[in-house]
Amino acid sequence: MRSDAPAGRPNQLFRNLNSKIALIPMMLVALVVFLGGTVWTVVYSFTNSKLLPRLKFVGLEQYERLWDAPRWIISIQNLAIYGILSLIFSLVIGFVLAALMDQKIRFENTFRTIFLYPFALSFIVTGLVWQWVLNPEYGVQFIVRSLGFTSFQFDPLYNADIVIYGILIAGLWQGTGLVMCLMLAGLRGIDEDIWKAARVDGIPMWRTYIFIIIPMMRPVFITTLVLIASSIVKVYDLVVAQTSGGPGIASEVPAKYVYDYMFQAQNLGQGFAASTMMLITVAIIVIPWAYLEFGGKKRG
Question: What is the DSSP secondary structure assignment for residue 212, as one 8-state letter?
């Protein structure tokens, strides 16, 4: 047994050698571009870089300025509102649509294509489309008023108090189809015997979904949450296409704050500090997911 062990180790080392060699460029890119770029951003967030990066450290000064800026605070508030509502409505609407599609309805492929089609569009296109739809001069408000309801008012993109909800509508329209497909794939993976057993026991369908099906779909929900949360943190195109951050700074988001300071205000240090805060937000989302997904399996 001992004499075979050393011979087995080289065999394991050279097993699937071609696949391991093919992975080398991707690993180098990940290390140099992603990891290196992340470290570079964090380091320069502690400097006084302006137009060009320079290693003149100022401690936490950039972060103090960041959290003292009303524009950043508004962007965080908008991201919180958009993120929480987007998570809730995306999951609820997506799951309900998936549950309806799972009933083997007629023209299922057609409906699935219709619901998923908005996800194929870019956020810029989606933002422009919904900018026209929500425009009071020729959008929903104009159409309803032309029907005789002259007092009807619906102009969220021009009202600073509710502008973030207008952006939310466009985001839900584009992203809910993907959530529906993920949920539908999870539902189709449920054993048919579970449904039969629930019907034999006389359990109502809504209780079957809540207490049996949804707990079984936990991995699907976790993956969907991570995908939605990641897209929420980096939301930028939708805001620029619909409102450009207006009215005023009412619809500012962190990603736009970063872009404006790095490429327009020529304040790289401030942009790097904001980017680092976004990185921390993503880490708060991804690390618990990775622990739940891989830590639990490893212990198992």
Answer: I
| 70 and 37 belong to one structural domain | no
Mark whether 39 and 138 lie in a shared domain. Answer: no
Question: pLDDT, tens digit, for every residue of 85-99?
Answer: 999 999 999 999 999
Q: What is the pLDDT of residue 284?
A: 82
Confidence grade of residue 3 (pLDDT, cut at 50, 70, 90):
very low
Residue 52 lies in a domain: no
pLDDT at 7 over 60: no
Residues 215 and 295 in one domain: yes
Q: How far apart are CA 135 and CA 126, in angstroms?
A: 14
- C-beta pairs of 60-67 under 8 Å, 24+ apart in sequence: 62/269, 62/270, 62/272, 62/273, 63/273, 63/277, 65/270, 65/273, 66/270, 66/273, 66/274, 66/277
The answer to whether position 53 is within a domain reads no
Backbone angles phi, psi at 54, to 5 degrees: -150, 145
What's the predicted TM-score (pTM) here?
A: 0.84
Answer whether 135's CB lies under 8 Å from 157's CB: yes
For residue 106, give its domain range. 61-299
Q: What is the pLDDT of residues 246-286, one digit of tens each?
A: 899 999 999 999 999 988 888 999 999 999 998 888 888 77
Q: Report the percent of the chain where pLDDT is more than 90.
A: 44
Any domain includes 193: yes
Same domain, 67 and 151: yes
Domain contains 55: no
Chain centroid to CA 103: 28
Q: How many CA atoms lie within 13 A of 24 on its CB side?
A: 5
Please indicate, yes or no, whether residues 34 and 78 belong to a single structural domain of this protein.
no
